[in-house]
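Q: Could you fold this chain for me?
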Amino acid sequence: MRVRTIAAMASLMLLTGCGAADMTKQASPFANAQGAKTVTLSVQSWVGAQANVAVAQYLLEHQLGYRVDTVQVDEVPAWDALSQGRVDAILEDWGHPDQEKRYVDDKKTITRAGGLGVTGHIGWYVPTYLAKQHPDITDWKNLNKYSSLFRTAESGNKGQLMDGSPSYVTNDKALVANLKLNYQVVFAGSEAAQITQMKQFAKEKKPFLTYWYAPQWLFKKVPMTEVKLPAYKEGCDADAAKVACAYPHTPLKKYLNTDFAKKGGKAAAFLKKFKWRTEDQNEVSLMIADQKLSPVDAAKKWVDSHPATWKAWLS
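A: Sure. Below is the predicted structure, expressed as structure tokens.
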């Protein structure tokens, strides 16, 4: 049985990035519906998260016969939506310890659903062609030496550190201040806008310094080299205003609404088992964002070629 979501695929195709309008009040009519074979998934607006949802949705619909709805919600508001049952699952969380303590440990309205199988890492990157020209540029201690290379109209007489959206997990303003760097954080507004700028800079072989993250399909199109920040140590980012260290490597996690985890039947069991590799996520992301396949077509193509992986999620 093939069932299309009400507006899910259209919203996925926008690829608007985390700067999209807050849609936390867009409650799905199917979320937490008693006795109905429906599932509502939170979809963050970066393409890796969209790849997760596209494949999970395809299999829930085509293999398990569920109707699937999606709601686009920014990272922190998604926790509130999940707690209230307005969505049933978050498939990719990059680490929100305050929210986890509040909803999982204290209120118990959200249940941990295991790892996604993908480890995320945020960092600062320069294009590899620039790193080859100036090998020492990949040490943060030398960034002020090169700040004039990164000046833009938006950064004035400082170098530009390009970020995506203020709604992302970012310590960049604190890092710039605490490391005494002559840089200005400039927000592109969304993942899509940031990608557009990076691709244009790369096409013209111009210098750029950007907040970026892995896994991400763009590395295949625009090779980048990470700038080494002061080493991450447990607790070094506990005070947001005093952060002066690199971002951690974060095993990405899944979370379910607690009622759904208990009563969601085969759908809940499937989502708990949903676990794939970075290479799998990047494969689907590349099809959606670069090859311009619709999320449903990208999901179908991946499903058709990886039966051994997803059949284990249904057992």
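A (continued): Residues 1-30 have pLDDT under 50 and may be disordered.
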